[in-house]
Design a protein that fits this description.
The complex is a heterodimer of chains A (305) and B (245). Chain A is mainly beta and 305 residues long. Chain A is built from three helices and 22 strands. In chain A, the strands form two sheets. In chain A, strands 3, 4, 7, 10, 12, 13, 15, 17, 19 and 21 form a ten-stranded mixed beta sheet that branches. In chain A, strands 1-5-8-11-9-6 form a six-stranded parallel β-barrel. In chain A, a hairpin with a 5-residue loop joins strand 3 and strand 4. With 245 residues, chain B is of the alpha/beta class. In chain B, the strands form two sheets. In chain B, strands 6-7-8-3-9-10 form a six-stranded mixed beta sheet, with helices on both faces. In chain B, strands 2-1-4-5 form a four-stranded antiparallel beta sheet, with helices on one face. Chain B starts with a strand and ends with a helix. The chains are: A mainly beta (305), B alpha/beta (245).
Chain lengths: 305, 245
């Protein structure tokens, strides 16, 4: 890999060297490195448009890194990655995609991730998106995530997109069996004329299942965001969705939290708030010696932390 | 160190033209603990805001160490050495106590240094250092953190706007001890507190009484305080309880 690719890799996966554990690195549409371990097997799908990741039941304290980097202008790809997470395992999965586009043609990566989380399994999933390069070509990422959670499994998803992605259309769906628990933390900042749409549909099908979908976002300049989260309770369950946004400049934000209860014991809550940075927050930080612009950065960094 | 000369502040609002400060002149000398008291609505908090640069006077001059700072903004005054503790501390989602202390100090702080500032305001550092400065903190906790940021700045002049506002009596008692400690280590700096609490007036070197937009009295504590006892300008702890009623 070249230095640009290595730098992007550090941005999206905090990787500065070959990671510990299992990994698959995809660079400009081809595999740039792969390692399976005794309990985590990574294999190519027939046709080369994705990989299968199989984690053996009972695998504990292991990690899988599957970053993608695109540094070639005009490259468009759709990749299907399927994760089979065995029962009683406890693993960390780090995905993420970075695009460096200096050319005039659009670069696009559409990653479709399907997770089959086994009974009692515990997964932490981290996905970071990043774009850079000053070409006229757009940097486009359209991730699709489908999660199927078996009894008493748990999954925590952290999705971060802070800089440089021109257009995102994200769709995340999850279906939860009894006792399963899903936590989603989304952090998003859009700037320039970027557009980001994030749609969630979480179905709580089993008794005692729960979901907490929380998005914090900042829309600057002329950017646009849409957050559409629907939690459906089909059994005695707990669901919570929250969208908290800071709007700046000429940004636009549409928040559409929704709830659907099909069981008398479904307890569902949604919250949504959009507002600019409070004047008194700026004043407080300025009395500590920051300029207005520095105060704004501190407030946003804290908010998105 | 600080001097206000013929400072005026008026606003035009729905109620028409209002003179909030009519003609206020006073100075805060070096190494002095000065308390501004007076009835509510008399213009005390406005004076604090004018010193910090949060509001701009409509007339008069503000001097700091002999330099005219009337036209300087909040940041410029902060960098010259003026600290200002707000009456209503601000909450921030995601910003931790340690972040705020670091911003206040203007440099990286070691854990030990951060903990020292929190201990001085009576907070157990271990419990608070990584807490977010958000709605989960009580009014009293926020006030102490606000004061800790002023300690971390360590500037020549510190202005506190009603440090006792919105806190319970127990917190107030320990807050007084914080100010007594600050009073002891005042060297090369000055403290200006807006308060009508007798216990804070008791540790003042000088007292300024502001009523109806003007200074009605000013001078050394022993000359001014006796005439205030029992009035709304010097509330005892019991008055305070009744006031909150």
């Amino acid at each position: 890999m070249d230095t640009i690719q290595k730098r992007i890799l550090a941005e999206v996966a905090d990787l500065h060297a070959v990671p510990e554990g299992a990994y698959n690195i995809r660079a400009n549409g081809v595999s740039a490195g792969r390692r399976s371990t005794a309990s985590i097997e990574i294999t190519s799908k027939p046709g080369g448009n994705g990989i299968d990741i199989r984690i053996a039941p009972g695998t504990k304290k292991q990690s899988v890194h599957i970053p993608v980097v695109l540094s070639e202008s005009g490259l468009k790809e759709t990749v299907y990655n399927d994760f089979y997470i065995g029962a009683d395992s406890d693993v960390v999965i780090v995905a993420g995609c970075g695009i460096h586009n200096c050319g005039t043609q659009d670069s696009e990566h559409d990653g479709i991730h399907r997770f089959y989380v086994g009974e009692n399994a515990k997964v932490k999933y981290v996905e970071k998106h990043y774009g850079e390069g000053d070409g006229a070509g757009k940097r486009i990422l359209n991730p699709g995530t489908e999660v199927t959670m078996a009894k008493n499994s748990s999954m925590e998803m952290e999705m971060v997109q802070i800089r440089g992605v021109d257009s995102t259309d994200r769709v995340t769906t999850a279906v939860l069996d009894a006792g399963a628990r899903l936590i989603v933390k989304e952090r998003l900042m859009t700037h320039g004329s970027q557009s980001a749409v994030s749609v969630y549909k979480v179905e709580l099908n089993g008794a005692g299942s729960s979901a907490d979908v929380v998005s914090r976002s900042v829309a600057r300049d002329d950017s646009y965001q849409k957050f559409d989260a629907c939690v459906v309770g089909n059994a005695p369950c707990h669901g919570h969705t929250e969208c908290d946004s800071i709007i700046m400049d000429r940004g636009r934000i549409l928040a559409v939290p929704s709830l659907e209860a099909n069981d008398v014991d479904a307890e569902l809550i949604h919250e949504a708030a959009i507002g600019k940075i409070a004047g008194e927050q700026l004043i407080k930080l300025m009395t500590l010696g920051l300029t207005e612009a520095e105060a704004e950065e501190q407030i946003i960094n804290g908010f998105l932390k | 160190m600080l001097e206000l000369r013929n400072v005026r502040f008026d606003v035009d609002d729905d109620a028409g033209h209002v003179d909030i400060l009519k003609d206020v002149s006073f100075s805060v000398p070096e190494n002095k603990f000065v308390v501004i008291t007076g009835p509510n609505g008399g213009g005390k908090s406005t004076i604090a805001k004018l010193i910090a640069g949060v509001r701009m006077p409509t007339g008069g001059q503000i001097l700091f160490d002999g330099k005219d700072i009337t036209a300087l903004n909040i940041t410029e005054r902060a960098r010259l050495g003026i600290s200002y503790a707000l009456q209503q501390p601000v909450r921030f989602k995601g910003i931790q106590v340690v972040d705020l202390l670091r911003i206040a100090a203007g440099r990286e702080l070691s854990m030990a240094e951060s903990c020292e500032y929190l201990s001085r305001v009576g907070l157990c550092a271990r419990d608070y250092i990584s807490r977010e400065v958000n709605a989960s903190l009580s009014g009293g906790e926020l006030k102490r953190i606000e004061i800790a940021t002023i300690l971390a700045r360590g500037t020549r002049l510190s202005v506190f706007d009603e440090p006792e506002a919105g806190i319970d009596l127990w917190s107030f008692q320990s807050l007084i001890r914080v100010f007594e400690e600050m009073r002891k280590s005042i060297e090369h700096s000055s403290i200006l507190v807006i308060s009508h609490q007798e216990r804070i007036l008791n540790i003042a070197d000088e007292i300024i009484v502001v009523a109806d937009g003007r200074i009605s009295q000013q001078g050394p504590r022993d000359a001014v305080l006796p005439s205030l006892i029992g009035t709304a300008s010097a509330l005892s702890s019991c008055d305070r309880l009744q006031e909150r009623g």
